[in-house]
Specification:
single chain; 336 residues; alpha/beta; 2 domains; 6-stranded mixed beta sheet; 4-stranded mixed beta sheet; 32% helix; binds zinc ion; NERD; NERD domain-containing protein
Length: 336
């Protein structure tokens, strides 16, 4: 998205980066057997993340007309909270309030069950897709943000909006709360909800002049997106991971090291970069460091010297002395 500026102030104070998690799940799924249910679950979660990004871009368009030096917009901010992280799709800062926006891009008949703290949908295949009830997720974001505001000595109330952006979504509150929570709306009503909040006469808590400084300070609290306990969560054991190097053209783990490069056995094309994805999968999901022997197994190599050169070429950082040398990613996204 273009950075809009008004009188030298960046209205977008934090830009969105593409999700590492969706990409990492897709890479991991390549190393799993076809019949493993976890493979389908991983790919489904990756596609939900990508759909979410699509929904967030729709919200960008609705949000931008509000941008001003008293309405700053941050995209996709991740903050530490409670030993884990919170990821806020959109964060608006104004002199009177902060607003977190949690976009849901889900199609179909979605049921919201506040009592059981769930949102769910019956799938055509008979399974049920479930997820945390969005206002509970928004509540966690609010608490995390208030904690950071507190450290910054900023006294701003935090509100939340949860727009559902898919055009075919049908929302239904089930259980004893038959009315949808106030912060939930279809994207068609998003602009109206936002205007209501802006015009609700909330008292000014901070000077508009201080707003860019607060946005800058807030950015210093952000952390990289982290990936948690994926193998456990999807019930995958390390022994199920299939070693090998992916071919870009055949979409198979069909590359072997021959003639000083990885070459696909099926189409004969060289694949010089994809071995890095294999190392990334190991270092993200299995262990935060890899020894030469494991690298040889994962990449189907025989010579330690080849594995060493390839790991250095991939930018991995060696540590420990010669006999017990391990390699790791310089800036890991692993959290477990
Ligand atoms: Zn190939």
């Amino acid at each position: 998205m273009k950075i809009n500026r008004l009188g030298g102030i960046a209205l977008i104070f934090h830009e969105r980066k593409p999700s590492i998690r969706a990409h990492a799940y897709e890479l991991l799924s390549r190393h799993l057997p076809e019949n493993l249910p976890a493979k389908t679950s991983l790919l489904k979660e990756a596609s939900i993340i990508r759909a979410g990004e699509f929904g967030e871009k729709l919200i960008d368009q609705l949000l931008l007309p509000f941008g001003s030096d008293e309405f700053l917009i941050g995209l996709n901010l991740t903050f530490p909270f409670d030993g884990e992280t919170i990821q806020i799709d959109h964060l608006v800062l104004t002199p009177s309030f902060a607003l977190t926006i949690e976009t849901k891009h889900i199609k179909g008949h979605v049921k919201l069950d506040l009592e059981n703290e769930q949102m769910y949908r019956h799938e055509p295949d008979g399974s049920i897709f479930t997820s945390t009830h969005p206002p509970l997720q928004a509540e966690r974001h609010r608490k995390g943000l208030l904690q950071i505001f507190n450290k910054m000595n900023v006294d701003l109330p935090v509100y939340s909006l949860i727009p559902f952006t898919h055009s075919t979504v049908h929302l239904e509150a089930v259980g004893s709360y038959t009315v949808l929570p106030q912060e939930i709306c279809r994207s068609g009503r998003f602009t109206m909800k936002l205007r209501e909040l802006c015009e609700s006469g909330l008292p000014q808590k901070i000077s508009p002049l201080a707003l860019p400084q607060i946005a800058d300070t807030l950015k210093t609290y952000t952390v990289n997106e982290k990936i948690y306990h994926t193998l456990d969560r999807f019930n995958i054991s390390k022994s199920q991971l299939i070693p090998g190097v992916w071919c870009h053209f055949c979409s198979e783990l069909s590359c072997i090291w021959t003639g000083r490069r990885f070459r696909c056995q099926l189409c004969r094309e060289p694949n010089d970069e994809t071995y890095q994805d294999t190392l990334f999968v190991y270092l993200t999901f299995v262990s935060e460091s890899i020894a030469n022997k494991q690298a040889r197994i994962m990449l189907n190599l025989t010579r330690p010297g080849t594995a060493r050169i390839l790991m250095l070429k991939a930018g991995l950082e060696p540590f420990h002395k010669t006999s017990k040398r391990f390699y790791r990613i310089r800036k890991s996204i692993r959290a477990n």
